[in-house]
Specification:
alpha+beta; four-stranded antiparallel sheet; 134 residues; 4 strands; single chain
Length: 134
């Protein structure tokens, strides 16, 4: 990925995006997620073309709201894109550093956690959540 594209993508993630640990189902551990919500489908398709991921539409809550979309990367692809753009991030650099440096260390490949490893994983989840509070 070119330097200019990385920097532009970092700006979009910093301004419109989310870097977090999230899960799809109750019975799974949170995994890295990078997402961007926007009303510009062409912008999200531009990101998808360069980084992969999926785009979904969001329901409008009120008639005067515009249709909006979410681009999302999960798991190793999220870690990959964070490594690609992290040096250009400003607002979400701490999020990216925590996930890229710590997530694999506290995640058991087979999902079998010792009490100590589970505590470290939960500590990382709490650190990310704290960074995402407004």
């Amino acid at each position: 990925m070119e330097k200019g594209i990385k920097a532009y993508l970092a700006g979009i993630v910093d301004g419109e995006g989310t870097v977090t640990l999230s899960r799809n189902h109750r019975n799974e551990m949170p995994c890295p997620v990078v997402s961007v919500s926007n009303t510009s489908l062409p912008l999200l398709k531009w990101i998808q073309k360069r980084a992969g991921g999926i785009i979904t539409s969001k329901n409008t809550r009120k008639p005067h709201h515009a249709v909006s979309y979410v681009w999302r990367l999960r798991h190793d692809k999220a870690i990959w894109i964070l490594n690609e753009v992290k040096k250009y991030l400003i607002v979400k650099r701490k999020h990216a550093d925590l996930i890229t440096q710590e997530y694999k260390k506290v995640t058991h490949r087979a999902g079998k956690y010792t009490p100590l490893l589970l505590q470290k994983k939960n500590d990382l989840i709490q650190k990310i959540r704290k960074l995402n509070q407004r």
